[in-house]
Amino acid sequence: MTTFAIQTDALAKTYGLGNKKVHAVDGLNLNVPEGSIYGLLGRNSAGKTTTIRMAMGLARPTSGEIKVFGLNPAVDPERVTVLRQIGYVPEDKMLAALTPRKLLELNRSFYPDTWSDDLARKVIKRLELPLDTAFMKLSLGNKTKSALACAIAQRSRLLILDEPTTGLDPIALDELLRLLVEDCTADGRTIFLSTHQLAEIEQIADHIGIMDRGRILLEGPLDDIRSSFRRLTVTGAALPTTNPAILSIKQQPHATQYILQSSPEAFAQDLAVNGATIVESDPMSLNEIFLELCRTSEASEADREEEFA
Amino acid sequence: MIAHLGLSFLIFIFPLVAAAVWKIRSIQRAAAKAERDALPFVPTSTPDPALLRGLPSARRIFLVQHLKAAAFLYLIESWTIAFIFTLPLFTLASVNSAKWLNHSAYLWYSFITGATHFTQFLTTMVLFSAIAAIMPMRFGPEARFYRTRPIPISFVFWTKILSILFAMIAGAVTGIALSFALFFVLKGPIWQNLPAAIPRILGPDDADVAQLYASLLITSAPSIFLSIITTIALLFSVVVFLGSAPVLRLKNAALPMLMIPVLLVPFGITILSFNSGTGTPQFLRTLYIYLNLGPPPPLGYALIPIALTAVFLTCARLFANHQEL
């Protein structure tokens, strides 16, 4: 039976009042399996950071529910039990105005049971983190590295990273991805990260969730997602325009392009049976899937708004 | 008189500036040395006070940090209060007291009015201390850091609030005791040398002095000092309450809303004290705020600000549970 590190049920978070209401998270259902590396993808203002803030108990749901290891992260004493098991790198990386050394020493005292000095030294060395530079003089990349070193050395059951690659150069980014895979996934530990860096996520994540406008558009194991999506370029007469497998259709000068989101083989077989010719059948990268889902979501949202108007 | 004041101010400010410069320089030197040495990460555990050993390490470290900050506030406040209260010792020319016919009475009057006029300074100091206590729980990196560590919100709240509140009260008590001791050492027990009645020799031109004499003789110094302590607690808890209230937390508008207590408390109290005339208005007496010479409020009234402080702090604590960062 799958157990979940984070689970949400119709989670919603609304800011503002009256006409100025903003639905940052809008009926979100998220399931982050324990032991997975889960990448939460989304455009700006998709609701990723708000979701993470609710998982950390920094914000309270307007409605719905969020559970971390089955516990409510917003209310003591459950909150303390949850936080004992989470390493967190916030979006703005501003943990406290201390040198990295002082920050590590302070953070160490909060996790006496799981903290590893050896792992801290390893992260410091691999990410080339200057330990004694004043916080004000640290570059954004080094602030990110400080936050990462603290969170990784905690050896928590769940690592929550909100845009963990901000300010990192390609070498530091590569080192970080290695560290996450080598040192943070042992003993069934979970990594939950939100990012825009789709290529990097594709290298390490085994589960993906794609969010837009506060809702989840797609969620599941990355391999299943990759095998479900396909781009078919087809010629023929009387081609179908509606089918649950179709995500979008584009008319090209001499062909029709289908983006399929499920059962591509069965759909291709149906087309062939009905006399269509499949000119090309290409797998899609995570980046292409993401872009296609976001565009489709935007188009259907615009249609809904038009209908409403 | 002005030269005396200038010299007194220098005596007051010099130790504070010297201590601040010394502290900044030592921090800068330590930082430069650490950067030069580039030592590896080998954390050492610091010995903890025996009293705190029963606490989990995270809470112990948090508590020690805040006790250090509170000790600093305590020193500053003790020094400042002692200075304000002993100022009459250094600035009074004997000619000023000639009209009073009794030098001890004039000195005692100056000491006591120093205490009552201390209210304006007190409100400012309490205001900034309360904001310094509440702000790092609501805004900025420190708030987010501690809110995402495994320590209960109640522990963070009470540690921050009570360490600063007790530092302020202890600072006030120490400052008053020090100045009282200094008066005693330099001038003797002046409060025992007051005339039992208004001197008959005062003529019709001396009505103001006669009035002050009359007020001074019924003024209660212990009540004034108790009032300072209850007023510190009350004002502090009001600002903490206002600063914690959820109504002040509108997205992107939280900081300007905090200006309400900033404007309300010191200006309100200042206006009240200026408009209070020779006596303290009844509703302030009910809150055991003793602003002017005259009869003290009944001692039982001191329970009102204490109870209100408890109510305001309890409400602020409940608000803290619901704060979003």
Oligomer description: heterodimer
The number of helical elements of chain B comes to 12
Order of helices and strands of chain A: EEEEHEHEHHHEHEHEEHEEEHEH
Specify which chain pair forms the largest interface. A-B, 44 and 33 residues
- Percent helix among the residues of chain A? 25-40%
The main sheet of chain A comes to:
6 strands, mixed
Shape of chain A: globular
User: What's the total number of strands of chain A?
Assistant: 14
What distance separates the N and C termini of chain A? 46 Å
What would the principal axes of the Cα set say about the shape of chain B? globular
3D structure, described in words:
The complex is a heterodimer of chains A (309) and B (325). Chain A is of the alpha/beta class. Helix content of chain A is 36%, strand content 28%. In chain A, the strands form three sheets. Chain A has a six-stranded mixed sheet with strand order 6-7-8-4-9-10, sandwiched between helices. In chain A, strands 1, 2, 3 and 5 form a four-stranded antiparallel sheet that branches. In chain A, strands 12-13-11-14 form a four-stranded antiparallel sheet, with helices on both faces. In chain A, a hairpin with a 4-residue loop joins β12 (246-251) and β13 (256-260). The radius of gyration of chain A is 22 Å and the shape is globular. Chain B has helices at 2-37, 57-91, 94-97, 103-138, 140-147, 153-187, 207-218, 221-244, 254-257, 259-274, 282-286, 303-322. Chain B is built from twelve helices and no strands. Chain B has 325 residues and is mainly alpha-helical. At the A-B interface, α2, α3 and α4 of A face α1, α2 and α5 of B.
